[in-house]
Write a structure and sequence with these properties.
Layout (H helix, E strand, L loop, with lengths): L13 E5 L8 E5 L2 E7 L5 E5 L13 E3 L2 E3 L6 E2 L5 E3 L7 H4 L6 E7 L2 E5 L19 E10 L3 H8 L5 H4 L16 E5 L2 E11 L5 H4 L5 E11 L3 E4 L1 E2 L6 E9 L5 E9 L8 H19 L22 H16 L13
Antiparallel strand pairs: 1-10, 2-3, 3-4, 4-9, 5-6, 6-7, 7-8, 9-10, 11-18, 12-13, 13-14, 14-15, 14-16, 15-17, 17-18
Helix pairs in contact: 2-6
Length: 343
């Protein structure tokens, strides 16, 4: 599926950038092929407009922020958070002409430590992350980086129990017993809930993460998929330790995503330093990245177009594609993918 050709995808919220990065000034981003620029207004709220000055089409992200407005670095034309031109230095006495000038603005707000953007009126709010308001949990921002893959490929992989034994054989995957556990899946209009238990290896480098020194342990998974490209990896261990990861596979274009990952834990920095947790999760994430960047990013999500004869453990990935296809159908969209695209 070519995400840039599915207009309905513009009607969702996407985690675009860690909010603290906006303290550095204008931040450029491409969302679903749309160049935008983000910054903080005078009240410290994130805002986003098209990254293009009306004057000579210069990228506003090359400018700077002044009094909560963004100033073009070419000739100083200045825009507010709503995209209205509020100053033209060379035409200070012509307010009538200035008031006719504006740049398209986009919905933007802060949640879970990120600036989120919706390019059009959203069909639903930002996914509710229960851990964000639960007492006794700490949030750790882990990774924010560009991957050369598609959002759907990432989501398929995120719910795939079969890949653990091979992709993650150097970390937690039990390579010698590659039989995946099955999911219990409950679908709803905007995603699904999935439960399973996964036995894993527990090497010394993951002891702080799992809370045990046993050579093997079990992950109790209560995962969630939120249409279109967000997942909650609800993980706990036998001792009651919570290690819940949130991922947003934010689509930059048809072949790239901005992966945002943050973590919730019910322990303290003294129990498990964030640097230690991030180091192990970084190793695991890089294993996923290496294999996903070796796959075709173009995914045919219409499973009715061919016979599906994959493994039973592929079911969550098929449900992801089914829900996306249902979304397109409800909004009159037609799936578009490259010639030869396959899954």
């Amino acid at each position: 599926m070519l995400v840039t050709r599915q207009n309905v995808l513009r009607k969702f919220w996407y985690a675009v950038v860690p909010i603290e990065k906006l303290d550095e000034g204008p931040f450029p981003f491409t969302l679903l092929g749309e160049p935008i620029v983000l910054w903080k207004d005078a009240d410290g709220n994130p805002c986003a407009i098209r990254d293009r000055c009306c004057h000579r089409t210069a990228r506003l992200s090359k400018g700077f922020v002044e009094n909560g407005n963004i100033v073009c670095g070419y000739h100083g034309w200045t825009y507010d958070s709503g995209g209205a031109c509020v100053r033209i230095p060379q035409m200070e006495d012509d307010d009538a002409k200035r008031r006719k000038i504006s740049v398209e603005s986009f919905r933007c707000k802060e949640a879970c430590g990120y600036a989120w953007v919706a390019l059009e009126e959203p069909l639903r709010d930002i996914p509710d992350i229960p851990e964000e308001s639960m007492p006794g949990l700490r949030r750790i921002n882990q990774f924010y980086e560009v991957w050369n893959t598609s959002s759907i490929r990432f989501l398929e992989n995120a719910f795939d129990n079969s890949h653990f034994f091979y992709v993650h054989r150097e970390t937690f995957g039990q390579f010698e017993n590659p039989k995946p556990s099955s999911y219990e899946i409950s679908e709803h209009e905007w995603g699904f809930d999935a439960r399973t238990e996964v036995p894993i290896k527990n090497p010394p480098e993951s002891h702080a993460l799992t809370g045990t020194t046993d050579p093997e342990t079990v992950r109790y998974l209560s995962n969630n998929y939120y249409v279109p490209f967000t997942r909650r990896f609800g993980c706990s261990y036998p001792g009651g330790l919570i290690h819940t990861i949130i991922n947003c596979a934010t689509p930059i274009d048809d072949e790239h995503i901005a992966l945002t990952q943050w973590l919730y834990r019910n322990d303290t920095e003294e129990d498990a330093p964030a640097a230690t947790l991030n180091a192990f999760d970084r190793k695991v994430t890089n294993e996923d990245r290496d294999i996903l960047e070796a796959t075709d990013p173009d995914v045919c999500i219409d499973v009715s177009r061919r016979v599906e004869e994959h493994m039973p453990s592929d079911r969550p990935g098929l449900v992801v594609r089914k829900l996306l296809m249902d979304l397109l159908a409800r909004h009159g969209e037609v799936e578009v993918y490259r010639s030869g695209g396959h899954s």
